[in-house]
Amino acid sequence: MQIAVLGTGVVGRTLAPRFAELGHTVTIGTRDPAATAAKEDYAAWQADHPEVGLATFAAASELAALVVNATNGDATLEVLAQAGDLGGKIVLDISNGLDFSGGFPPRITFPQDDSMAEQVQRAHPAALVVKSLNTMTADVMAHPDRLPDPGTVFMSGDDPAAKEVVAGLLAELGHTDIVDLGDVTTARGTEWLMPAWLRVMGAVGSPYFNWKVVR
Amino acid sequence: MQIAVLGTGVVGRTLAPRFAELGHTVTIGTRDPAATAAKEDYAAWQADHPEVGLATFAAASELAALVVNATNGDATLEVLAQAGDLGGKIVLDISNGLDFSGGFPPRITFPQDDSMAEQVQRAHPAALVVKSLNTMTADVMAHPDRLPDPGTVFMSGDDPAAKEVVAGLLAELGHTDIVDLGDVTTARGTEWLMPAWLRVMGAVGSPYFNWKVVR
């Protein structure tokens, strides 16, 4: 599958090569590819990962069947606005809307009857938005099998076929307990896991954990 | 230990006899004991559980070292105001502040920088408030061992000694992974697990599950 990963941060740099390793064709999307490629840390990473392409948000998305939003919540809407026509494409939204301006722990940037996923869906009504993977750190997204138990990964979205594709991708990554919560509004549930996630990280002293629904 | 369980609903009726079974002296607190005892369903339940006492909120709390708030969030502050002087007592707060007036799923009744536990602590500054057990259904609180894995139970509170007592009680109930998140403000994390909990209940078709932090 042709996959665009929008965002050059930790999440993007973790998922992009993992998808490539799984046999997908992966291009990272960024605002200014020349500027990104010229950054010392990105250039070093790129040298280690020649299998991952780099292009503008729009060029990366154009040929992709699946566009991964791996940007911070505060950049999400602006970045996706630069990604061209997302109609008919699966948009895998991993973002969390967090405001760190008041210190730690950050605040959620939207009211409880909204979510990042719904904001993305409203901005791109013809896109097939699926919220997933936002409830764990990047290393766990990419390699849940490295935990003693992979835990649970959730999906929220309006399009069943898009969720089926995402579920297949999640399974390829190593996720074994994939819970479809329902339509895109159910992302309100998982996006509000973040306040607890941040406190658990503090208590267990590491981001390297996952939620599991034991039943 | 002498324990008061405030609230005659499902949570109170599940926990009270379980604590008694574990060897504690348990009194359920209610607004009007005569009226509660006269209710047909309560009378039938009481006949099955003669080991559990019934008294006013104040009388039940007076002799208790540990007062369990097993009321709904919307009744919590009013009930605890009737419980007499809670200074020096451990108040185990299980409440969730949910408003069902707009249908399902309910809304959280407080802003993200507050919690039921903090409201209780502010109203009773000398009480030793510990938030716990609010992230699971009553049967799982009382018998986590009946799940394939007991999962994780969280604690939030300002008083380390009170949390130690609560941790002991949780262990007696069968909880094996007890995570102390920190001070009472960390209840903001677990109280905001409810929106996800409600969607997971919908997806798995049962309230009989628990969160587990796999790490």
How would you summarize this macromolecular structure in one to three sentences?
With 215 residues, chain A is α/β, with parallel strands linked by helices.
List the helices and strands and how they pair.
The structure is a homodimer of 215-residue chains.
Chain A (H helix, E strand, L loop, with lengths): L1 E5 L3 H12 L3 E6 L2 H6 L1 H9 L4 E4 H6 L3 E4 L3 H9 L8 E4 L4 E2 L7 E2 L7 H8 L4 E5 L5 H5 L9 E6 L2 H14 L3 E6 L4 H5 L2 H11 L5 E5 L1
Parallel strand pairs in A: 1-2, 1-4, 2-3, 4-5, 5-8, 9-10
Antiparallel strand pairs in A: 6-7, 8-9
Helix pairs in contact in A: 5-6
Q: State the secondary-structure class of chain A.
A: alpha/beta
The amount of beta strand of chain A, in percent, is 15-25%
Structure summary, number of beta strands of chain A: 11
What CATH calls the topology of chain A is Rossmann fold
The CATH superfamily of chain A appears as NAD(P)-binding Rossmann-like Domain
How would you describe the oligomerization state of the chains in this entry?
homodimer
Report Rg of chain A: 16 Å
**Could you name the CATH class of chain A?**
Alpha Beta
Mean pLDDT of chain A: 97
Order of helices and strands of chain A: EHEHHEHEHEEEHEHEHEHHE
